[in-house]
């Protein structure tokens, strides 16, 4: 997987169509965010580590199949919008652990401020870390979260940032400090507006997921 992967799939595009539409209400927005999260989770874990395990089929034939140790996966949603992808990952990796990083943004300076951190202090317990947040805009929140995670001993090479939409400014900000972190997104939009919202984007994902 290259350092940036865009999931170019018709189903992902259809999810984005519904998410972008201002007429989509909270229930539909949550449903499509979860559906898109499944596709992103599959792509983000394309290179996941696994062991081979022998099973016997109903035809009494033994066959070797991959076994994923999902209890060694750590999900880190950036609050609050990142919660929209957690269930998607847990549907596929039910034994994964979930930590939370809360980041608020100063709307004047766009500075990211951490207000919550539950990332475990035992990086040896995890093989992969997936940071999930629907929007990679300025990159400030993502960089702040990556600083929290790597500050506890996690290696950038084991971290993947998963988002629905990104812009080049955010990608460059992340890779400027963490070049080894992989980024998986459904689309790269052209720009940010004066309020640092992705354009054309889909509005404020946190507000649309939670209504308030």
TrEMBL record:
The residue ranges of the Phosphoribosyltransferase domain are 6-209
Q: Does the keyword Zinc apply?
A: no
State the Gene Ontology terms under molecular function.
GTP binding; uracil phosphoribosyltransferase activity
Q: What keywords are assigned to this protein?
A: Allosteric enzyme, Glycosyltransferase, GTP-binding, Nucleotide-binding, Transferase
Q: Does the keyword Membrane apply?
A: no
Please give the biological process terms from Gene Ontology that the record holds: UMP salvage; uracil salvage
Q: What Enzyme Commission number(s) does the record list for this chain? A: 2.4.2.9
To which pathway does this protein belong? Pyrimidine metabolism; UMP biosynthesis via salvage pathway; UMP from uracil: step 1/1
User: What cofactor is this protein dependent on?
Assistant: Mg(2+)
Gene3D superfamilies found in the cross-reference section: 3.40.50.2020
Annotated family:
Belongs to the UPRTase family.
Q: What is this protein called?
A: Uracil phosphoribosyltransferase
Q: Which organism is it from?
A: Desulfoscipio geothermicus DSM 3669
């Amino acid at each position: 997987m290259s350092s940036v992967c865009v999931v170019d799939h018709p189903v992902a595009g259809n999810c984005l169509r519904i998410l972008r539409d201002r007429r989509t209400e909270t229930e539909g927005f949550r449903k499509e965010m979860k559906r898109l999260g499944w596709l992103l989770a599959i792509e983000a874990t394309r290179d996941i580590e696994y062991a081979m395990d022998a099973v016997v089929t109903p035809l009494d034939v033994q066959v070797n199949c991959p076994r994923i140790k999902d209890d060694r996966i750590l999900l880190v949603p950036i609050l609050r919008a990142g919660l929209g992808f957690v269930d998607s990952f847990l549907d596929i990796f039910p034994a994964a652990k979930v930590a939370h990083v809360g980041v608020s943004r100063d709307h004047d300076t766009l500075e990211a401020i951490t207000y919550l951190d539950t990332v475990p202090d035992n990086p040896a317990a995890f093989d992969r870390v997936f940071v999930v947040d629907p929007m990679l805009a300025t990159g400030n929140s993502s960089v702040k979260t990556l600083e929290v995670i790597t500050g506890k001993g996690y290696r950038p090479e084991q971290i993947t940032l998963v988002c629905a939409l990104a812009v080049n400014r955010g990608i460059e900000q992340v890779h400027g400090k963490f070049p080894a972190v992989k980024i998986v997104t459904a689309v790269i939009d052209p720009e940010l507006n004066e309020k640092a919202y992705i354009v054309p984007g889909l509005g404020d994902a946190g507000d649309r997921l939670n209504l308030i």
